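lol ok so funny story. i was supposed to be doing the assay writeup but got distracted and ended up predicting the structure for this chain instead. priorities right. anyway since i did it might as well share w the group, maybe its usefull for someone
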Amino acid sequence: MVKNVNLISLLKDVFAIIFLIAIVSINQSVQGASPTVADTLENKLFEAKGVDRIEILYRLIQKHVLTDSIKSLNYFKESVRLAHSSNLPWHESNAYNYLISGLTNDKSVNRLNSALAYFQATKNQSGIGFNFSYLGSQYLSVNNYPQAERYQKKALETFTLIDFPYGISLSSERLGILCMVKNEYLKALRYYYQALRINQHNGFKREEAISLYHIGLTELNLGNYKEAVDNILKSLKYWEEVNNAANVWNCNELLGNIYLKLNLFEKALYYHRIALKVRNDNILKNIKSGRVATPDLYLGIAYSWNNIAEVYLNLHQYDSACYYAIKALKIKEAKNSTATANDVANSWLNMGNIYRKLGKPDSAMLMLTKAAETYKTLQNGSSYAEALYGIGNLYVDKQNYIKAKEMFATGLQKSIEVSDKNNIKTGYQLLSDLYTATRDYKKSMDYFLHYSELKDSIFNRERSNAIEELQIRYEVDKKQQKIESQGFIIAQKKRQITYALIGIVVITLFSVLIIFLIIKNKRQKETLLIKEADNLRKDLELKNRELVCNVSNIYTKNMVINKVAKTLSKSIRTSDQTDVLLINEIIRELQQNMDETSWKEFEYRFSKVYESFYQTLDTRFPELTHVERKVCAMLKLDMSSKEIAAITMTHPESVDTTRSRIRKKLGLEKDENLSEFLNKL
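and the output, tada:
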């Protein structure tokens, strides 16, 4: 099953993972870099300032960390000095990650001790505090808990002495991790909440998200699933906002684990698949950018596969569970794998439980025994208990109830020692079922009652104390009320009822007033809209009348012009040749004025009323001629063919022919009305 208390995984998944992708990128560039690239970095350093300068110093630390410890240390000192003077505590702390990246634990400790000696000589208290804290983390990574605690507490004391909030938060957070690794969950929560308060007060958003993640993880181990989900979702929100893939997958993975504990398997599978997708996308991103995906990134894929396997195990889809569990184990056991012993044991535990369901007891026993031995060596109490439960189930299958009882009892005892309430609940259930199988119904009932009580009410000690305190206060208040006279109690109740009624009446009246105002406002708006619509309609009617009047004027003007033209044509017969030419020229000018000037005036007026008509017509039907456009405009005014013919000085039959051409160009069916179609444009 999934384990969240493993010290190495915690350090990688929460702290170092924040910087992992950046460090990997720098590693790849440094390994393939030419002297020219290094020279370029050092040249840029002279011009860079502020955060840009710190970032370049990081890259130079990384470049020399494996090849030239003196240069690496000198660049490190400069980055710490600059970050501290610029009041950038995160960058000051981040420099230490680059100082020891890629080094073995022993070399990391030596490098940190060298830095510590420098800061002690220069009396740089924040540098001393950070060194103590990172030394504590290194000792934690090799399971040296006493040294880890010693250095983290020295860091906390140093930061507290100089009142350095960021350092106090960091060392508190890491002391919380140490306590959680040791299964001291309540103590871990105290440190985490101390760090959270500091981070929230000082606006350390990144560190606040880390604290929320740790609190959620601890609440999960305490069986407080609602609180766990609440804190993890808050943490996830921040990581998604800053697009931090590593912690996005951490949060989704933990949400999957929480829902797995709640037996909401489909939801658990949903979150684990999100985590898997984020990890796959991250690897593809590295490959596309020309970087090699490191074993650490593939180890993340193995985590997701192992989690998905566990979900399928609980869904009774054992073949799918086996498929994903084997894939995860292969990555963890690969030669270049960075998996810890606890990581591998997690896969063994999963494989053992899956093999049992697949009817392979020998393979299951081998896997579960290896997992149990590893957890015992690592002092991972919760996981050790789960491995013992798995072995006990195998003995139950063989009807070896004595050995099964021994495994279950030992697992339960270990769960109680580490306060893992979920595993305690599981132990009670397994022992209850075991005693039922052996017909010891009294013991079976005793364990079932323990199981049922714990299942229905899982609280940590602090919360139980708070509830007990509230219950005591309630009882005291109740006794005091009994001492008071019945009349006072009745009067008090009457006052309460009166106040309640007054409150209800006030709220009701206020609600009615609001509703009245809303309705009144709505009616006023409707009345105003109706008036506006009526005004627009009247305005349109007026403009239409003006257009019709304008068309009539055009008709009258054309009639006059036509009459004059006919009179002039008759006078040609009695005129000499020079006059004939002049008269013909006058006739042409009159006809041209009749065809163009008047219609230009009409079209100008028409476009003012129907602004987009001609534009729409030209856009949708560009093949229409100028004459057809004129006819379309008059049809939009609901004019008949006879009226159009009178105005255009043509025959109605010609207008009908023009209308037929227009219908064809507009693509109208026989039953479609041309005027109605044009009115919709």
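Residues 559-679 form one domain. Confidence is low (pLDDT under 50) at residues 1-36, 459-478.
back to the writeup now i swear
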